[in-house]
Inverse folding.
């Protein structure tokens, strides 16, 4: 698999390992290789740029799970090179392997399908309408994977929404704000979103790897219930305030209107450009934040793979807050 040293990828690798699989992981750095080896994985040095290395890594595997990708980049071209071209190389390399894998599971994103309309959850067969460069490149990656699929190899695609849990930095800012006694109320109008806990998502990806029904299918994998963004930040604050070091902390709501979100995206992107860094926030991410909603329909994955998110939301948030505190992140 690729991306095992990242947030989602590590949860996926752990889930396969717990299921008795031998997990071969493509890694770039020595530190990541040592950490994965200590966890019982089989690290292989390489990256998405070398098709020959990818073929050798895939040789003899039952399934290839492709998680690696860029959420942020200095340019659209840089992001596209990894999320589209890199995905095509992973899939096509399976055809170069002496012993081809039987299936590729591509971990894409809800952003590839685009935002939902008010009052209606997005379904897998809806025409895709990405609103960000990230979403566009993930959609291009899905199409590149289908086009590059070798004979005899199946493809399954999993589209998660916002993912949270231990090791995540995507919504870490909400936990850090709560640790300072601030509950952000983002946006000038109500918006509802789907979310999923990292270990629950990993279970969905394992099912997409092993269930015959998943061949040729795309799935949204999220909690059954959607939430208003204000409810998400309020429940994050509850989880943080329940920590022993945070009890009694007074929480204050801070409105963050749309124009502030857009301005923050612009300023963060320009500051990163001048410093030659990858922006942690950008106009692209602001556009995703301010979309009408991000609700997805999970009836297909429930019906075909028997999957539902198993962890109660409040427990998942509490476990995440506890992990952040133990790691010194909040």
């Amino acid at each position: 698999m690729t991306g095992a040293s990242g947030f989602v990828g590590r949860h996926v690798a752990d889930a396969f390992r717990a299921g008795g699989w031998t997990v071969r992981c493509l890694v770039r750095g020595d530190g990541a290789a040592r950490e994965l080896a200590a966890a019982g994985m089989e690290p292989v040095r390489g990256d998405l740029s070398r098709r020959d290395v990818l073929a050798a890594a895939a040789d003899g595997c039952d399934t290839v799970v492709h998680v690696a990708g860029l959420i942020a980049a200095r340019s659209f071209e840089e992001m596209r090179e990894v999320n589209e071209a890199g995905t095509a190389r992973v899939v096509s390399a399976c055809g170069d392997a002496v012993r081809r894998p039987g299936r590729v599971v591509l971990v894409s994103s809800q952003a590839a399908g685009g935002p939902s309309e008010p009052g209606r959850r997005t379904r897998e067969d809806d025409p895709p309408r990405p609103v960000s460069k990230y979403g566009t490149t993930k959609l291009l990656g899905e199409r590149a994977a289908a086009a590059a699929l070798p004979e005899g190899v199946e493809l399954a695609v999993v589209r998660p929404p916002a993912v949270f849990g231990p090791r995540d930095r995507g919504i870490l800012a909400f936990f850090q704000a709560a640790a300072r006694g601030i509950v952000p109320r983002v946006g000038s109008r109500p918006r509802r979103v789907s979310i999923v806990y990292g270990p629950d998502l990993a279970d969905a990806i394992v099912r997409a790897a092993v269930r015959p029904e998943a061949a040729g299918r795309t799935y949204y994998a999220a909690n059954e219930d959607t939430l208003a963004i204000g409810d998400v930040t309020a429940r994050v604050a509850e989880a943080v305030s329940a920590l022993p070091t945070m009890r009694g902390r007074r929480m204050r709501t801070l409105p963050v209107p749309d124009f502030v979100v857009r301005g923050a995206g612009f300023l963060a992107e320009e500051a990163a450009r001048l410093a030659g860094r990858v922006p942690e926030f950008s106009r692209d991410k602001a556009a995703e934040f301010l979309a009408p909603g991000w609700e997805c329909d999970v009836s297909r994955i429930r019906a075909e793979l028997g999957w539902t998110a198993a962890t109660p939301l409040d427990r998942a948030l509490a476990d995440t807050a506890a992990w952040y505190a133990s790691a010194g992140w909040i």
